[in-house]
Structures are given as C-alpha cells and as structure tokens.
Amino acid sequence: MTHKPMGDNAQQAFERGFKDTMATVMPGTEVEDQDTIEAKIRHERDTFLLNLIAKRREAVSGRNSSGIELEWSEDEEHYQGIDDANRAFHAANQLYRTSKAHMLGKDTTGPAGPARSVVFLNITRSYVDAASARVSDMLLPTDDRAWAISPTPIPKLTPYLMQQLRDMMGLSYSQKVMEQFVDLQIQNAKTAAKKMEQAIEDCLVESNWHGEMRQMIEDSGRIGSGVFKGPFPVRRVARMTKRDPVTGEVKFIRLSEIKPGSKRIDPWNFFPDPACGENIHNGSYTWEREYLSSRKVKEMLEMPGYDKAELMAVLREGPKSAREGSESSHRQNDAEFEMWIFHGHCAAEHLRMYGVELEDDVEEKMPTMAVVINDRLVKITLSAMDEGEFPYDVLAWQRRPGLPWGVGVSRQIRTVQRILNGSVRAMMDNASLSAAPQIILGNKVTPEDGNWTLYPGKRWRVEADSDITDVRQAFNAFIVPSVQNELMNIINWAMSMAEDTTGLPAMLQGIRGDSPNTLGGMQLQDNNASSVLRRLARRFDDYVTQPHIQRYFDWMMQYSDDDSIKGDFQIDVRASSALLERSNQQSFLMQMLAISKDPTYGLDPARLMKELLKGQRLDPERVALTEEQKQAQAEKAAPQDPTLQARAQLLSAQAEHTQARTAVEHVKVSVEQARAEQLQAQAATTNVEGMYSATEAAKNLLMASPVAGASDAIWKSAGGTDKDLPPALPQVQGNELVASGLVPPPQTNTNPLTPANPASPATGMMAGIEGGGD
Q: 201-227: b or e for each residue (b if 16 or more CB lie within 10 Å)?
C-alpha cells in the first residue's frame, strides 16, 4: 500500500481524487466546470474537517464530564500543598484551577473571620515521590530489561525454508541430517531474535526510554494515570566527520534518518474516545494536544507530508486565543499554537480527496493520522501501523471501573491528608490561644496612655465613680486550656493511617527507623509492603511493556531493511515481576553465596555474586576482573580453601594408592617371571650336570677296565656278590687307549729332576734342573 503525502500540488490531488470518487459513486455523471469542482472540493474538505473537530469536542467534553479533571486538579494541588484554606497564599502557583480563579477575580480567601492557621503539613508529596521512586528503581534497572524477545516454541518457517524442507523430504535423507537442519533453523531463529532485541533496544535508548518512563510513572503515582506514546516516526540526526584523503580537509557531516521513537505524554493533553471503557484501544479514536512555538511551525514547512499553504495560513493567523480542554497548568504565553494529533479510521474516499494514493481493493475505512492547527488540517496520511493500533499506552496506578484513568497515591491519601491538616491547624490555633491569657477588666478601668495593648510596666486608672473597692477586682486573667497531647494523638494516628491507606510503610521510605528486630520480621514486613508493588508491576507488564514492545516488533517487521532480524518471535515481559522479586531475594542470595564454595552443591559463586550486585543496582561488569587479571591470579596459584586442600590431598592420596597397587601387581608379575626363569635355569643346570657326570663315569669306566678283574676279586673277598654283568663299554686294552690319546702313557720315570718318559737318557741332562731348562 502506498500513499502520496500532501504538498504543494494538493489542490490537483483533491481534484483528481474528487473526480475519481464522483465517477465511482455516480457513474455517468458529467464533469462540471472548474469552479463547481473547486467549490465541491472545498465543501467536502470542510465537511471532513468539521467531522474531525466534532470528534475532538466529543473527546474533550467526554473527559470533562467524567469528573476526572476535577480530581486531577485536587491531586495536583495536594501534591503542591494547596487547598481552599491556603489558596490565597499561592497566587504565583501555575496550577490551572488556582490561576484561573485569580484571573476571573474570584475570591479565594473565603468569608472574613478570625485569623486561623492555614498550615498544610504535606505528606502527600513524600508518599507520592517515595512510591514512584521505588517503582522506578525496581522496574527500570540500568543493567537489565523488563522484556525479552525469543522464538516461539514451534517457529514458523519462511516460504524459502519451507521449500527447502519440502525438497529435503522429497529426497532420501537420514534422520540425522533432518535433525541437523531443524537444529540449524532453531539456532538461526535465536540469533535473529537476539538481533531484533538489539534493534528495538537501540531505538529505545535513543528515545531516552528510562527517563521518559520515569516521568510517566511519576504521573501515574501523582494523579493516577500515566500516558506513554510510541512508536512514532522521529527524525534522528547522526553527526560525524570525514577527512578528504587528498587535501586532508575535515568536514562535519549531519545525516538524518527516520526512526521509531517513544516519549511521555502529559495526561492532561490526551483525550481518548469517551466510549473506550477501561482500555483506550477499545475506542474508535484518540486525540493528543501539543503546544508549539512559531519556530516549530516554520520547521514543519521543510518536512515532507505537510500542506505548506495551510501552514502559511496558520502563521499568518497566529495562535488562537480560545483553547479547548483543561490544562495541568495555566499557560500565559499567547504565542503558542495548539496542535491536535488525531489517530483513528477515516473513509477511503476522503483520503483520496486529500491526495492519499490507495489501492483499489482497500477497505472502506483506513487507519489514519491527521494533524490540525488552528482548526486547519495541515497533514493527513495513513497510520504508521497497518493494523491501526493507537500508539499510546495508559498506566493506571489503581484500577478505576469504567474509566481508563486510575487512582493515584495522592488520591489514596486524600482523607488522611485532610485529617492531618485539620488536626495540625487546630493544634496551632490552640497553641495560639493558650500562649497568652485572656484579660478581664472591670468597669471604669482605663489605660492611662489610652492604648489598650498590654506591655510591661503599663499603668491603669480606676475612675472615681467606679464600684471597685479592691484593685484585684479590676483585673483578672483567664488561661485557655492546652490540648496539645490530645491533638498530637490524632496526628500520630493519621500518620499511621497513611501507611495503611497507601500500602507503603514509612520504614521503607526512610522516614522512621522502627523496623523489626528480627530477620524473619523484616522479611515478612518487606513481603507485605511489596505486595502492592507486585500488583503494579503486573499492570506495568500488561498495559505498557507488552503492547509497546509488540508495536516496535511490528514496526521492525514492516519497515526494517534487515531481513536477518525477522522471524516468528514472541514478546516475553514477565521480567518486571522477576525484577521486583530480585530485590526481595538479597538476604537469601547472601546465604547461597556462603554455601556456594562447597563443590557438593554444584553452585557457581560468580553468577550468584552477579545476581547479588544486580539486586543492589550495580553493574557486575564494572567490578568484574578482566581476562588479564584472571590469568595473572591463576598464575600466582593463591592458597586454596582448607576444605578444598583436604579434598585435593585425599584425591591425591587415593591416586597414589592406586598407583602403588598397580606397581605391586607389576612386581608380582616380575617375580613370577623370574621364578619361572630360575626353575628353567636349574633344570638346564641339572641336565648339564647329569650329562657331565655320565661323561665322567663313562671316562672312568673306560680308564678302569684294566683293573676291573682285580676289583671284582677284592669285592668277592670282602663278601660281595659279583653280578657278572656285561661291560657298559667295550673293553679296550691299555696300549690302545694310550695310542688313541684318551689316556696319558704311564710314567716310567719317577725322578722329579728328570722329565717323565724321556726319549733318551740325555733328555734329563738338557731339560732338567741341571740344564737350566723350564
């Protein structure tokens, strides 16, 4: 769908749109002359504008007749410490009702009477500020968000991915390949959701989300309702420098782009459809009022989509003196223009008449945004959101049946504030009366100086004809009783009732130090006090965060050029309630941090410490160690906890015991192997010895065969029995043995000085001792 904004050629667009409309509604109608066409165009345009103005008056009168504006005025005045008794002393105050009464000349001092105390002991401001500050701290942390974007449990695939899946299903793929494809798409969806979250957060940061949201929460606590607007198109200017690589000249460049933004709207300047009920999105339209200076109107001449001719007419006319709708404060500057912004549905033929190009098959009514200044339509275009949702959210501090507006802390404490004011003023009046005595004078008693004012050393005269016989009868003093204690009891009771009516104990505001003495009592009181804030946190989720972030998501899906951030996502806004609970878990986290050092529980002390710091509104990254510092600490090998050391020593001893057992097993195996080798060696030695003995025996037998007969004879003579066995070896004669070299020849020469068996008798002479031989 495309549309052509209003511009210099708006008149031609009106004519073309009017002709097309007439041809559609009344086919066959002849086109009339130029003057008649222009007259009908002006008539249709005036009729359309009158309808818009009628809707604006309906919204203004509807809000006024609901009585909410009167309550808002009272809430604003009580927050400033103003009521009917002391209104005359706040003439310089800019509140609308007070200033208007002075401008109209109304008497705000009341009937003349005795001087009474007009003290306003303002506890409304302290309770409102404390409540809004407490809510802001818990719902708007600087280190976390109250929302998140995540893929749906069963994300829908894009047409391209669906076609890929069909192609894969048509072919034969294994189950593992299909699971890998699905896991990849799930991971891509998580990455895209993270990018979408960062894109939305970038727009919110540029819009000063936390600052604008805090103002909205303060409005809700003060008058019961806060209004937040967004997303709406905002021109953002980026500033940068560029250096010419040739000349080296540095140029300052401004780049402007249209991005979505958010801001807080004053509830006094917001007028929803009176028939919307408790939700403004159930209505048919909304109106927003904004005040502009002449410079801002002139800047609109350079903006696309505005009718320059109508803007020039507005500048020539100047601001209108008569204004519609009540205001939070009286604006005495007459140089401001009232700009009214309309969001609703308009007929398609009316949009075509104003130059908005629409498709032929569009609906009869289209979501529209129109801008009116001085009852002149200066801009009309299609709404930025295709669904036509209003870019507004209303936070009601406490639900009010039948109305989108809520009840604030200022209204909740109204009765208590009046009781307190009455008691304090009565106590001040009583103190004034009881501070000085009431003097009673007798007849014919007059001051000598004629002045009836009392002062020290004053002289009085009793007339001669007076009936006073005793001077003590001339004067008498009467002291007014003091009831300070009774009135102070009422004041203390009112202060305690303020805590009950608002649900905010004074101890949580830092007003008094009467906190419970035990940890359990402290936790119980803190949980009871946070029940009201927990309810408000859920209302904040349901009526502000969820619809606001959802519109940003729709904006990004519709207008963003980055397709990598788009997908089937869901908005998770349960974090605000979790943020509220986090502030109540600090004592429990301290206990968990103490036992997290025990590895038995499997807890991470670092993560617990991060949660503890977040609960104290501290950024963990600011106090966390860098990677270099972590590495340096690891190298130092700091002493460990005794418990961990003992456990490490036990594990080390168990490991050493296991190693020792393994070594013993290896030794046993080695011993068995050595024993087997020893047995094998002994068997080999026994075999060798046996073989040697057999060889020696055979040798001995061979050498003793010549004496075998004599040995047998000796054996027989000694009584032995000769078996007469055959010889184990064949009998060999002695000469054969000597000849074979098995035995040496018998020695025939026994002289030690002569060699054995000399070859000749002279051998001894040459080889013996006598010859000096060896």
A: bebbeebebeebbbbbbbbbbbbbbbb
What pLDDT does residue 226 have?
96
Cα distances (angstroms) measured from residue 294 to each of 314, 333, 336: 10, 12, 7
Q: Quote the percentage of the chain above a pLDDT of 90.
A: 30
In order, the DSSP letters of 120-186 are: ----HHHHHHHHHHHHHHHHS-TT--S-EEEE-SSPPPPHHHHHHHHHHHHS---HHHHHHHHHHHH
Q: pLDDT tens digits, residue range 359-379?
A: 777 778 889 999 999 999 999
d(CA 404, CA 412): 17
* pLDDT at residue 2 in the model: 46
Rama region for 410: left / alpha / beta (φ>0; ψ in -120 to 50; rest): alpha
Least confident of 217-226, 506-515, 720-729: 506-515
How far, CA to CA in Å, does 386 sit from each of 389, 390, 555? 8, 11, 9
SS3 content of the chain, % helix, strand, coil (to 5): 55, 15, 35
The span from the CA of 45 to the CA of 48, in Å, is: 5
Tokens of residue 660, six digits? 């020792």
HSE (side-chain half, CA atoms, 13 Å) at 712? 12
CB 593 within 8 A of CB 612: yes
Q: What's the number of CA atoms in the CB half-sphere (13 Å) around residue 165?
A: 14
CA gap 273, 414 in Å, rounded: 29
Averaged pLDDT of the chain = 78
Q: At what angle do helices 519-540 and 124-139 cross, to 10 degrees?
A: 80
Between CA 322 and CA 310 the distance in angstroms is 20
Proportion of the chain above pLDDT 70, given as a percent: 69
β-bridge pairing 250-265 and 445-447? unpaired
State residue 270's pLDDT score: 96
* Span 81-110, pLDDT tens digits: 998 888 888 765 566 665 555 555 555 555
Residue type, 62: G
Which of 369, 397, 627, 377 is closest to 502 using CA atoms? 397
Helix H or strand E segment including 517: none
Q: CA 402 → CA 64, 391, 645, distances in Å?
A: 15, 21, 68
Q: How far apart are CA 532 and CA 528, in angstroms?
A: 8
Least confident of 10-14, 58-62, 442-446: 10-14
List the domain boundaries for the chain. 10-118+208-412, 438-450+458-478, 639-681
Listed in sequence order, the residues at least 6 apart from 385 whose beta carbon sits closer than 8 Å to its beta carbon are 367, 391, 551, 554, 555, 558
Question: SS3 for 322-388, per residue?
Answer: CCCCCCCECCCCCCCEEEEEEEEEEEHHHHHHCCCCCCCCCCCEEEEEEEEECCEEEEEEECCCCCC
The Cα 106–Cα 91 span in angstroms is: 12
The Cα angle at residue 259 between residues 257 and 263, in degrees rounded to 5: 130
Is 513 a residue whose pLDDT tops 50?
A: no
Confidence of residue 755 (pLDDT cuts 50, 70, 90): low
- Say which residues have a Cβ less than 8 Å from residue 528's Cβ, sequence separation at least 6: none
Tokens of 397: 């501090």
In sequence order, the β-bridge partners of residue 434 are none
pTM over 0.85: no
Contact 254, 176 (CB under 8 A): no
The single residue listed with the structure tokens 């804030």 is 533
pLDDT in tens, 238-284: 788 888 888 888 888 888 888 999 999 999 999 999 999 999 999 99
CB atoms within 10 A of CB 695: 10
Q: What angle do CA 301, 304, 309 make, to 5 degrees?
A: 45
How does residue 734 score in pLDDT terms, banded at 50, 70 and 90? Answer: low
Environment class of 80 (CB within 10 Å of its CB; exposed 0-12, middle 13-18, buried 19+): middle
The position carrying tokens 């937040």 is 228
The average pLDDT across 408-426 equals: 94
